[in-house]
Structures are given as C-alpha cells and as structure tokens.
Amino acid sequence: MAPSSNWRRAQHWAVEKTVVTSATIKLFLPLGDAKSLRTAEISNWTGKAVAAPRTELDELLAREELEKAGIYILSGNDPVTNAPLAYIGEAEIIRDRLKQHKTKEFWVSAIVFVSKDAEFSSPSAAAAAIHGGHANGLTAWKTADGKSLKQLDEQEL
After folding, report:
1. Pair 60, 98: CB distance under 8 Å
2. Residue 60 domain-assigned?
3. 87 and 62 in one domain?
4. Is 13 inside a domain boundary?
5. Spatial distance between the Cα atoms of 153 and 48, rounded to a whole number of angstroms
6. Rounded CA gap, 122 and 99, in Å?
7. What was the pLDDT predicted at 125?
8. 72 lies in the same domain as 148
C-alpha cells in the first residue's frame, strides 16, 4: 500500500526542516590541563565560557573576562545530603561577585559565561552572528513595530 500524499508531504516537510549546522569548539587550556582553568568558544556564538576548579579561584579571578557582566554557576555537593548542588547567579562585574562567594563552602568548581566583545562591519555580519549563519541584516533587523532596517533606510531617502 502506497503512503498517502499527506504522509509524503509531512515526510518532505520534516526532511526540509531538519538542518544540521556545524560548529567549531575552541578550547584554550592556559595551564595545559583540561581539569584546570579553561576557556571555551563556539563558532557563531557571541559568548565565551571560562571554568576552573575552586582551587584555582585566584587564576580565574585574574582573567580579564571577569571584568564583564555575565552569569555563573558554582557547583559542588550539599554538605548535609551530599546531593549535587548548583548555585546560579549573575552580576555586572563577575569578578566582584565571585569574590563574595569565597565563604560558600559547598562549591568545588565555577563556570562563567560572558559576552565576547563583538564589533561588526555591517548589519549582515551582526545578523549572521545572531542567526548562526548567513543573514541579510537589512531585512533581519526590525523595529518593535516590524519595520526592517531596509525600510527605515528607504524612508530616509
């Protein structure tokens, strides 16, 4: 029995909509050890991750990325139950906030996420970074009422 046309259309749609986007992960090991201080970046992502064990807190705090705003995760085990425990926080200056957490005893590692400084040569380059691939910045960027950058440019002429 042949599949129905609706099934074929659904199958075609599923195949069309399945897009695999490749990415490159760039790891940097400042101390040469994957269990020590490390940074990670993913292509087409405007963020950066910095992680370290608590024993290397001073090295982590010395990183220039921690001068920025971002979010962080402190992980370890609950001192009473020994169950996994994570504290998630955010700060305008990550370094200052992490210094305040020296008194929290449960955590054994920290992961920080910050935005990389990104300057773009064009609206399309900025849109491509957000979309994770090629994009036309003149049509991708829109105001709250739906006007594209292209429409705004044309209005000014």
Report:
1. yes
2. yes
3. yes
4. no
5. 33
6. 38
7. 67
8. no
